[in-house]
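Recap quiz, item 2
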Amino acid sequence: MRSQRGYGILSCLAALAVIAVLLVSVGVVTHHSAQAAGKTLSIIIDTEADRADEAEIIATYLRSIGVEAEVRIWEWSALKERLLAGERQLCLSDWGSAYFDPFDLVIPKLGTSDRGNYSGYSNTELDKLLSQVQMTADQSERKEAYFKAQKIIFEDAPWIFGYALKETEAARGEITNWQPAMDSRMNLHDVGLTRGDTIIVGMKADKIITLDPAMYRDRDTETVLRNMFDGLVTRTWDGKVVPEIAESWTIPSDDVYIFKIRKDVKFHNGKTLDADDVLFTFERILEDGAIAGQSSPRKGLLGPLEAVEKIDQYTVKFTLANPFPIFPQALVHFQIVPKDYIEKVGDTEFAAKPVGAGPFKFKEGRLDDQVVMERFDEYYGGSREIPPAGVAPAKRAIFRMMPEATVRVAALKAGEVHIIQQLPPDLAKTLAADKNIQVKSVDGTRVYCVELNCQKPPFDDVRVRRAMNYAVDWDAILTSIYGGNGVRLACAFLPSGFGFDPGLAPYPYDPGKAKALLREAGYSVK
Amino acid sequence: MTRTQVQVTERIIAAIPIMLGVVIFAFLFMRMIPGDPVDIMMGEAGGVTLEEMDFLRAQFDLDKPLLVQLTRYLGKLARGDMGYSIQRARPVKEVILEAVPATIELALFSLLLALVVGIPLGIASARYQNSVIDRFGMTASFLGISMPAFWLGIIGIIVFSLRLGWFPTSGRIAYGMEPATVTGLLTLDALITGDTQALRESLRHLALPAITLGAGVAAVVARVTRSSMLEALKTDYVLFAKAKGVPELIIVVRHALRNALIPTVTVVGLQMGTLLGGNMIVETIFGWPGLGRIVVDAIFSRDYPLVQAAVMVYALTFVVINLVTDILYTYLNPKMTL
Amino acid sequence: MSVNIERADDIKRHVWGSEAYPLERPFPRTYRRPWSKLQSAWDILLKLRNHPGAIVGGLVILTYVVCAVFAPYIAPYSPDQVALTERFVAPSLANAHPLGTDQLGRDILSRVMYGARVSILVGVLTIAISMAVGVGLGLIAGYYQGVFDKVMSRFTDLLLAFPYLIFVIGMMSVLGPGFWNLILALCFKGWVEFYRLARAEVMSQKTCEYVEAARALGRSDGAIMISEILPNIVHSILVLGTLRMGNMIVMESSLSFLGLGVPPRIPAWGSMVSDGRRYMLNAWWVATLPGLALVILVLAINLVGEGLRDVLDPRLQEGQ
């Protein structure tokens, strides 16, 4: 009896020992001897789940020079709040720029306490330059300011500067005249097909926000909506602004834009589009609470726009509070809505049954499932500068939400969809052999980087920040996990954007230099 | 009123504070989670002024003290107004009503599958106790209990969608195939309107998610049926019937099964809650446009009103199913009281 | 899971989801089993001899534990050793990576071995904590009943009615990722079942003669609860704990799957499956193999749980 009880106690002890060993091994109960050595740089790399692989590689590079690095995966919103509070050390992040100008990239990301500035970076000289580019219309002056800004940012190294990825899309062989756009908007008006009459697009989003062009703020929604609505101007796939509904525009002074509107544009309900509709579209966005008691979240995108006036039935005048040279780029993202229809049926009904002047008209759909459109046969033809003009070749267009890349690819192979967004490089390889499928890439407009917390040690020391930049071999990362589908960036600017300095070379991969800098800053290295 | 009726009424009244508690808890809980819904809504485009953000915040009452927000929310709720979804810019009620049929359809089919597989398996295992069938059935059911849904779902996609191409990888039905809407449940609508093509299509889409979700339930059903069947086969009246020379099939089906099904029914009722509430991961994997996927997304985008409403729907379902199960339980076993 | 079924046997039936307890059978709660008479671990092991399933399960668990504890010595590679030139090596006994490599060229076998650490720890710790909290509160509520019991019952009703996954996702966002945060989030609701079972068992034991006798002898409430009642209910609690351990491991991996689990330095099976999901088309093994490891462990735990139930639950033994 006694000996049996003894076994029980023994096995309990053994179990406890196993648990203790496991706890220590998992690193939950850490012994802080490393800290006692004092000099080892020990950091936590924060990331969202979809870039965890990359974070893991960066950590490997850092470990190889003697930095203790650990990756932590976060849910983005929870991480962001902590980033903005300055509680984290370094994090992988990315930011898109839609205006082909650093206006919506560098200012929110690096302006002192701006909303996208997760690194807590602040440089008064840079702030001055950034306000200068917003206030002046002189492009050469702006360019010069941007060049100066790039030098400053490069030297200060608030981030581990990363890369811009190419956007890769794929389509089935029967799709013709298809070209992915740099701003990842998709205009099916131009796309033809040699078989069938329906184009089905596999979207990377799991939902779009709304069918009301005044109520969204994301690219995915715009990708769908721009097929039902046209704007005053539009963009070619490589970023040039060209007239769409507008006939032409003039800029009598730096802060006034006058747009002539085409007279042959019809809405899906048969009404002709004129200045009143344009006026209504913008007033609806500018005025607080104008959309069924809600306010449009798009107001800020219009920059300093102060007033919109009707000059005659087909002429509209925009007055700005200060010069804003990228105003036409901004207007690309504003789709014209029909005044009479919305006033008649109300905003809620409009969002349920939208009517626009685009190449396709809304048929039916669910925002988190699929949106179905049919060809608008009285379409005015679209921008004259993006041929072909005329009604769309496809009779029907369907946008289907397929957030899983694997699912999109499988559906494309099976012919369930005709075009897919965002093809991951590892899967692109599996499609390369398929003769029925075409894959195309285009330079992206999104900056990927690692932001360093410049407010707190260790990254308040510029030497440590530069050391980080020397320590990571981005080219290896780009070739291995991104299939060579990216461009190294020297700084926070995109090659496709205005004012990019091609002369600025990225930090090279130089672990020796990284170690030297770290040693200089007082850390022990390998 | 009979005693049962009184008890049912009592139970319904008792459910009210629970529901209220759930609503308040969901409300406070969501606000504890870091993250700003307005900021998420604004995405990352530049040029957002702080005033603009404040205005939007005010629009959703997010600038008011917590207590004021809560009282306003409860007040609206009492009038049947679930609020306005921040992310989707639509009334929450619409969003939820649109998603519920998909969730119900998936849950019903999983349940049907579980019964069709589980009950015969349980009966066969009991009738041929310790035989190969029994061993196989119980091993399978053990597997069913031990397999995480997300893994089973992925295996299903790899094998049946990607390799064999039998089933689609996601969605509810292909475009142009939908039957005319009657109930919102596509299969039922297709049956009612006699649209065989729509029926086939929606079943093809349903197959993988329903198997993934139903596997665990089928396992439980099989085990319960087996053991209650074993007991039932040993009862006096079954032995008596056997002695009288009644054909075996009739004994099993008519006499034993009837009694053996009582525990099964109870367990099925309890599993229904799992089916309706445990579908978030399955819906996410298969891109099934139901409530589970919406609510996971809503949490990540901090869409407070939508999450609160979804939690309420889940909790209500849970309470109702429990009530029904308990009533059924009492009905089947008059000796029990609620 | 049910809100209102309160008899211990009914709780067991739907919690365990398996063997039926005949509904009309009366409560035979007359035995008395103080701590000194409790079956020792050795006795239980001896009895489990007759359950082949439990033996197999036990051996599997043992293997996993050995792998987990000695992973640094057994595993062929370090779990976070990135090798960008060896991405997506297919599994084959002939090559250096029997289970293949993942998207970063890490050895899946090594990662699965290290991953066992997380799963085993999460399983054991969450159950231990849930059990301690649940049984403690259940004893008090069941013994004294009254206001405390009422309040606790409403509270647990509320917890059960609140969708678990929403709750855990929220918790992980509030607390941030981390091992202990994960344990906390899992325990927050895990204790409820133990509470309910303990409470129901205590309520049925309370009226037994041995409790009355102890009370008559003037023993304190605390002493009665711990040295008289607890030994009589500890077996069913143990069985519930074993059967629930599998669920906790599955829950942990589901969270890792959603990207809300432990930090990635510690490989977890769920996050491996989640990573592999993106490569289902070109590398099926990345997602499936870690999941298989998980299924086998949970299966083994359930087998042992089943065996324990047969051995330990006196009610079922009487029925046989």
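Confidence is low (pLDDT under 50) at residues 29-37 of chain A.
Residues 12-165+444-520 of chain A form a domain with the Dipeptide-binding Protein; domain 3 fold (CATH 3.10.105).
End of item.
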